[in-house]
Amino acid sequence: MGKPSSFLDSLPSAQGTLHVVMLGLDSAGKTTALYRLKFDQYLNTVPTIGFNCEKVKGTLGRSKGQAFLVWDVGGQEKLRPLWKSYTRCTDGIVFVLDSVDLERMEEAKMELARTARSPDNAGVPVLVLANKQDLPGAKEPKELEKLLGLHELGNGHMWVVQPACAITGEGLFEGMDALYEMILKRRKLAKQVKKKNR
């Protein structure tokens, strides 16, 4: 996977398939979210050992019809060192979060910060899918922003917290549209910087 050519950069929208990596702690609901996006139905899943990869299409807003190649990478602690290989040269990161599991919020914060701050991911837009919003005790997006320290990411990072429920599909397509908007914005900014530096 090389960098997109400068011809692609000059196009107004992100033509072709966008590469997106779906990360998060184990049991956050990544695979359930992926298959809900792919088939628009609930599939019972098992813990991911390794990764799943599916092409999904945006259905809302500007992302309607846009193809995303989504890599869903296992979230167990022993698999997290592999995340780095999947995020290299990616267009966007989807970080799936269990909005109810306060005990592991600090661990999620640490992993998200480590991923976002990696030099390979400088400026890569991050969509935080605040999953399990249907459960009692689910934290609101504003509260999750604080708990995850999103304002401290720095490095020109664009991010959005999208409340979601992977089982019903609520919020998932809105989240992908928000991610797409951030990807377009990042490309536009990169183009302006390129012009300025000529």
Automatic annotation (TrEMBL):
SMART domains associated with the record: ARF (SM00177), SAR (SM00178)
InterPro entries recorded: P-loop_NTPase, Small_GTP-bd, Small_GTPase_ARF, Small_GTPase_ARF/SAR
Highest taxon in the source lineage: Eukaryota
Keyword terms of this UniProt record: GTP-binding, Nucleotide-binding
Keyword field contains GTP-binding: yes
PANTHER family in the cross-refs: ADP RIBOSYLATION FACTOR-RELATED
UniProt similarity note: Belongs to the small GTPase superfamily. Arf family.
NCBIfam families, alphabetized: small_GTP (TIGR00231)
Protein name per UniProt: ARF
